[in-house]
Amino acid sequence: MIRQVARQRYLIDFTLASMMRRKVKNVVLFGVYFLIVFVLASVMLFGSAIRREAALLLANAPEVTVQKLVMGRHDMISGEHLEALSAIRGVRRAEGRLWGYLFDRGNGANYTMMVPPASDTTHAVGPGEAIVGSGIDRVKTIGRNEYLFLIAPSGRFFKFTVKERLPEGSGLVAADLVLISEADYRALFDLPDGVYTDLALSIRNEKEVATILGKAAKAVPNSRFVTRSSIARTYESIFTWREGVLLALLGAAILSFAILAFDKASGLSAEERREIGILKAVGWETSDVLTSKFWEGALISLGAFLIGLIAAYAHVFFFQAGLLEPVLKGWAVLYPDFRLTPHIDPLQVTTLAFFTIVPYTAATIIPIWRAAITDPDTVMR
Amino acid sequence: MIELQDVTKVYNEGRQNAFAAIRGVGITVGNDLTAVFKGPSGSGKTTLLTLIGCLARPTSGRVTLNGETISGLPEKFLTEIRRKTFGFVFQRFNLIRGLSARENVMLPAYPLGLDHAALTRRADELLDHLGLGSKGGLSVEHLSGGEAQRVAIARALVNDPEYVIADEPTANLDTKLTAQFLDIVRTLRAEGKTVIMTSHDPRIWQADIVDRVITLEDGLLTADERGAHAA
Amino acid sequence: MSALRRSDVAVGALAAAASLALVAMLHAFVASRTPPASQAVNAALVRDLGLTDLVLFTDARYTRHPSVADLHSAFQDHPMSLDHFPSGSLIAPPRHIFGTGPRFASDEEIPE
Ligand SMILES: Nc1ncnc2c1ncn2[C@@H]1O[C@H](COP(=O)(O)OP(=O)(O)OP(=O)(O)O)[C@@H](O)[C@H]1O
Ligand SMILES: [Mg+2]
């Protein structure tokens, strides 16, 4: 056992010494490997942290949202249905919701305008008042007087007094929110009374949702229902799409990398072949040669994996994934500023480890193996 | 004691360019003798050394070591025997670049997993013995030809083998270094090691430490004479 | 010779990296057990205001509110039209548009 450890140490000594000879190549290799792992791990960690956060937060979303559809498009829904809906057994409350988007021509940002539900007393707003999300401040000067000026789609000016700002840490759910009163909302968007963006149902027992939906579908024709569980599912799949794309891309990168390594190694230089011959001639077994090569692959890929993972962790959870921001922002002017709760999915990390370490190490060993099993008599010449 | 029984070696066997380098050789070497193989270029001297030293397997015939057949053994055992029994000094020295002289000497013992301090000490002793005490830490690219050969000799001795096999050991050396090499062989001989060499160089096969001179021609033994020492 | 061997340095560095990675996992574990105060605040906001989505991309309806967006909002102008927004390519269409029933979320059965 102690012998084995000592043997491995000797083999690592040798591997490092021969790696030092190709210092530049190995440093570049390590760097490329590190970058691949870093990007991949950053995306994975970010994605899984977002999904977890979404699952936790959106567990509080409305159980059922009822939308009216006209020719496949979302349309305003009449409040007349509220009575029929709240009469369905199992429905605790049915409420009309008013929310929509306002594009700010001045700075190109999109705000989500919303009327807080009547049941929410903590965010009650009077006429001419507004509560703004944490991101609004960053894209719009609210000024010393705490006034928020908005131009309605009709071209009319609106002036709101900012009554309150939503807390700093709430960017992930409320960065672009502007809460205003119902009267102001209808005036801003020229909406008639009695119509709503959609209707939210709160339900007594989650198990009854299917039954209630059946009844509601009869009560409100031409409508679509979004349940809380379908919201959850939407967010379970968020980023997996992109992660898939990235994985495919980086998978291809790793593969070409492995091919490169393989190609390089299978066309082992005469010097390397000779070196293997010398080692065998002086008494190394094939397995000794392979083990020392294994260490070469492992030191690079395992080292790059570990350091890449650590760097990605720090990047995502301590530096707010700053390098991913340009990708995530897209065309958005208003981008939420949020801190994710650290979260590591062990399965994901294992997968990443497997796919980064194994192919490369194998690609370094296999070609050597071919050279290492031949008789070493050529070194005599 | 190594015995070759009716050994042949055919390169590229079964192909168009097949070439029989050794064509039926029977010989016994060992027993503290210093033996030299001589013969014209291409006569098969190097090939015979690879067969004796278990670096290659014969195409037919058998090789025995102290009475045990070793020519048919699997690779793993052959390597182990090679490591324990033989030390090689190659014509081109074959030191590994990037490693220090000391590390090159230690190399054959790496797979044994010996205590690092003890192994380092042993390598330093060997180098010291060969007059390279101060060069242990130097990378082998910086050594002169004679120094490189002495490092190669130290490497051949690190596992304390019974046989030292040297192919054209003085081909790259001048007269003075050749004399120095013969001195080293003298010491080895005194320590009880069997030294087996090939050489084109009369200074080698006429040297007073040589017990036996074997002539090879066209893959066949043509003479087996006593050397200057035995005479 | 007690000089540091190359293998010691390399294995040491690897061990250090491995323990740092372990620390990161531990950190993540502890952090997920003790969520920051903002999580409770956010959960309360979602509940009080009845929010349905996270603010990840504000550039289009179907990226700002993917879970309640129109069935075909991404293809509104033409069924084959390409997405205008980079983030649209980063987000999968909401699950329910793949569903069988036109009006229901994917696996809610249409009752009699
Ligand atoms: N791998 C090989 N394939 C084909 N022929 C080979 C191979 N190796 C050696 N030979 C041939 O075998 C013959 C014997 O070679 P060997 O190296 O044993 O000769 P040698 O007596 O050592 O010659 P020299 O004195 O020039 O070193 C040569 O004719 C050589 O061309
Ligand atoms: Mg020769």
Automatic annotation (TrEMBL), chain A:
What is the first-listed, main subcellular location in coarse terms?
membrane
From the UniProt annotation, give the residues forming the signal peptide.
none
This protein's record includes keyword Phosphoprotein: no
Recite the UniProt keywords alphabetically: Cell membrane, Membrane, Transmembrane, Transmembrane helix
Matching Pfam families: FtsX
Its placement in the membrane is given as:
Multi-pass membrane protein
ABC3 transporter permease C-terminal domain ranges (all copies): 269-374
Record's protein name: ABC transporter permease
What's the domain of life for this entry?
Answer: Bacteria
Organism equals: Rhodobium orientis
An example GO BP is: lipoprotein localization to outer membrane
Its transmembrane ranges are: 27-47, 244-262, 298-319
From TrEMBL, chain B:
Recorded GO cellular component terms are:
plasma membrane
Under PROSITE patterns, the record lists:
ABC_TRANSPORTER_1 (PS00211), ABC_TRANSPORTER_2 (PS50893)
Q: Which family does it belong to?
A: Belongs to the ABC transporter superfamily.
Residue ranges the record marks as coiled coil:
none
User: Quick one: signal sequence residues?
Assistant: none
Name the source's superkingdom: Bacteria
Keywords (alphabetical) are:
ATP-binding, Nucleotide-binding, Transport
- Which classification does the entry list for the species? Bacteria, Pseudomonadati, Pseudomonadota, Alphaproteobacteria, Hyphomicrobiales
Classification via SUPFAM superfamilies:
P-loop containing nucleoside triphosphate hydrolases
A Pfam short name: ABC_tran
Q: What is this protein called?
A: ABC transporter ATP-binding protein
ABC transporter domain location, by residue? Answer: 2-231
According to the UniProt entry, its GO molecular function terms are: ATP binding; ATP hydrolysis activity; transmembrane transporter activity
Q: Which InterPro entries match?
A: AAA+_ATPase (IPR003593), ABC_transporter-like_ATP-bd (IPR003439), ABC_transporter-like_CS (IPR017871), ABC_transpr_LolD-like (IPR015854), MacB-like_ATP-bd (IPR017911), P-loop_NTPase (IPR027417)
